[in-house]
Amino acid sequence: MEDPVEYRIKNIMQVQLNTKAGMNFAGGLRSILRQDPDVVMVGEIRDLETARVAVQAALTGHRVLSTLHTNDATGAVTRLIDMGIEPFLVSSVMAASFAQRLVRKICPNCKEPYYPSEEVLNHWNLDVSNSQHFFKGKGCINCMHTGYKGRTGIYEVLVVDEMIQDLILKKKPAHEITQAAVETGKLKTLKENAVEKVLKGITTLEEIASVVMD
Fold this sequence. Notes:
The protein is an alpha+beta fold. 36% of the residues lie in helices and 17% in strands. The protein has helices at residues 25-33, 48-59, 75-83, 87-93, 118-123, 162-169, 174-183, 190-199, 205-209, and strands at residues 39-42, 63-66, 96-106, 111-113, 135-137, 148-159. The longest helix is centred in the first third of the chain and has 12 residues, at 48-59.
């Protein structure tokens, strides 16, 4: 179910929403469940009604994929609870939560090493001695003199295990869930994954600063 359908995909049944005709996410999801699907993808959970139907679908054995507008992976937990879904239901049905951002990649045709300022390195908690690992695009005809060509993703994945379920049941805020997951080595944050891609010479500190909240 999409609003709108952006790409037609072979062998996938895609439904265009029409709110004026009463065809919204919740109504469409109810109709789809009558067809006994194995996997359902809801373009976005925007309201309590859609969230309730999605949770009910997950409780009855369907794999439900959807999106929510949050800042990070743990934000999906608190977003559902804020919508009105009970914490015990969220902990029962949520298997994993992903956060992702797109960043531009350094152009391979004009890639060159450079040395960020000490202030920038300190901001990202990086050692000055590692400055030889930093690259940027000088700008060339292949990248229209931007220094970037193509994109890649940076990711944050929260797997909901027993520890996370317990924190959800206790209604802990998102930042506490994140902290607990990081401390136990179960979560690598968007910031950490972004810095990794900088050190690998895939993108730049300036680029990740535009998409990652510090």
